[in-house]
Specification:
A hairpin with a 3-residue loop joins strand 1 and strand 2 (15-22). With 397 residues, the protein is α+β, with helices and mostly antiparallel strands. It has 14 helices and 14 strands. Helix 1 crosses helix 2 (63-71) and helix 10 packs across helix 11 (293-304). It has helices at 35-45, 63-71, 75-86, 95-99, 122-135, 142-148, 155-159, 219-241, 247-253, 272-284, 293-304, 313-325, 342-363, 376-396; strands spanning 4-11, 15-22, 29-32, 50-53, 56-60, 111-119, 163-170, 173-180, 183-192, 195-204, 257-259, 262-264, 329-331, 338-340. It folds into four domains: 1-105, no CATH class; 107-242, Alpha-D-Glucose-1,6-Bisphosphate, Chain A, domain 4; 248-360, Winged helix-like DNA-binding domain superfamily/Winged helix DNA-binding domain (Arc Repressor Mutant, subunit A), CATH 1.10.10.10; 365-396. A five-stranded antiparallel β-sheet has the order 6-10-9-8-7. The termini are far apart.
């Protein structure tokens, strides 16, 4: 065991931080800083009224200025800050060693990128988040993880169990955790002050997970990766939760579409092929550059249990045309790629979730001999049937 020396300091710009030096060759050091401390200090110096949460802001008189300050917290400021304190604190390299070329270089060992969204009604926010957790316990599946982190999944990553989801409850506060290799995306209901918020944070523990070097100069790339993962996580949850669809829209999907003389067949709810098509669209919905005919074709064949050769490119073109005329997808201008429209995303999720979670399990109890009679849904079905029979007998009498 070797000794380490910790210096706990407060900087007028960066707030509280610490630097640790190892007393043994090669005398490694570690700097730990908090961007929220920097933001709070800068807001106070500028006289902007705010109320802080633990690593977040509950409210701010000028959110635009706060965002601008946060975005200016970059690698150049961190480097200048580090050099300033190296000139103040004692450390293993005296002046002669520094002149000889022995100098510290900062690398990113761990970086956390977070987004805190404040609820105007904290209790409703918590109810919403608990519902979101129930709807998204499958976020750790490889096909979903690769969408969140925009990384092509390798067999070794999947086989090694480095993609997973965990639901953790501490007391009465649940949290949702998604893992990709050494990267951890965490979401939880944050309490404090007079309100509460939804905290989404991506922690990158190894920049090589994304093919990025560790030197501090790579911080902008890691920042883009972390914040993009947060946004895609929220988009996935929005797609699963915000999926209301009106009666008129539903009826329109059950009928053929006609747009400027072009006709397309209906997208009927009970059509197994339509359900399979929508399931594939959910896998492709967050492709950053949209998707092509040739990307849809093998996935559609797989989910239908067919060989790819049994589905022609023309058949897939027909399906794309049908989806486009119904307004569920749109073609990206100047390309042969497509993407789901906002209405299309809600419709696809509505079809899929309703069929998988209500229609299919609900109808399975009707042939009563094929399932356990003590299931709550079976008992409820029998009670409903008895009440209907009793009502008919009463009216007939």
């Amino acid at each position: 065991m070797v000794k380490h020396y910790y210096f706990y300091c407060v900087d007028e710009d960066f707030g509280a931080f610490f630097i640790k030096f190892c007393s043994y060759f090669p005398y490694t050091g570690k700097l730990c800083i908090n961007g929220h401390e920097y933001l709070n200090g800068q807001l106070a110096r500028r006289g902007i009224e705010f109320e802080a949460l633990d690593n977040g802001l509950l409210r701010c008189a000028d959110p635009t200025a706060a965002q601008r300050i946060a975005e200016a917290f970059d690698e150049k400021k961190i480097e200048r800050f580090f050099r300033k304190w190296l000139s103040v604190l004692p450390h293993p390299y005296p002046a002669a060693d520094r002149k000889a070329g022995f100098r510290y270089r900062l690398s990113v060992l761990q970086a956390e990128f977070s987004l805190t969204q404040i609820w105007d009604r904290p209790r409703h926010g918590r109810e919403f988040f608990e519902e979101v957790i129930r709807e998204n316990i499958d976020l750790g599946r490889p096909e979903t993880v690769q969408l969140i982190f925009a990384r092509k999944m390798r067999r070794s990553t999947v086989a090694g169990g480095r993609c997973r989801t965990r639901i953790v409850t501490e007391g009465v506060i649940p949290s949702l955790h998604v893992y990709y290799k050494n990267t951890h995306l965490k979401q939880y209901h944050k309490t404090g002050g007079r309100g509460a918020g939804l905290r989404t944070e991506t922690t990158i523990n190894n920049s090589y997970d994304f093919g990025v070097g560790r030197l501090l100069g790579n911080l902008p790339k890691l920042r883009a990766i972390g914040f993009a993962a947060n946004r895609r996580m929220l988009e996935l949850e929005k797609a699963s939760h915000d999926c209301r669809i009106g009666a008129q829209t539903f009826e329109a999907l059950q009928s053929p579409a006609s747009v400027e003389g072009q006709r397309a067949s209906a997208l009927r709810f009970g059509d197994a092929r339509v359900q399979c098509l929508f399931a594939v669209l959910l896998l492709l919905c967050l492709q950053l550059e949209g998707f092509r005919n040739r990307q849809l074709r093998p996935l559609l064949a797989q989910i239908l249990g067919l060989e790819e050769s049994n589905i022609s490119a023309g058949r897939v073109s027909y399906e794309l045309r049908r989806l486009r005329l119904h307004g569920l997808i749109e073609r990206i201008e100047g390309t042969h790629r497509y993407r789901l429209t906002p209405e299309g995303l809600g419709t696809v999720v509505f079809y899929q979730r309703t069929y998988a979670r209500i229609i299919r399990p609900g109808l399975s109890v009707i042939p009563s001999t094929s399932c356990r009679q003590d299931l709550p849904i079976v008992r409820a079905f029998h009670k409903l049937q008895s009440e209907i029979d009793a009502y008919i007998i009463q009216k007939a009498a």
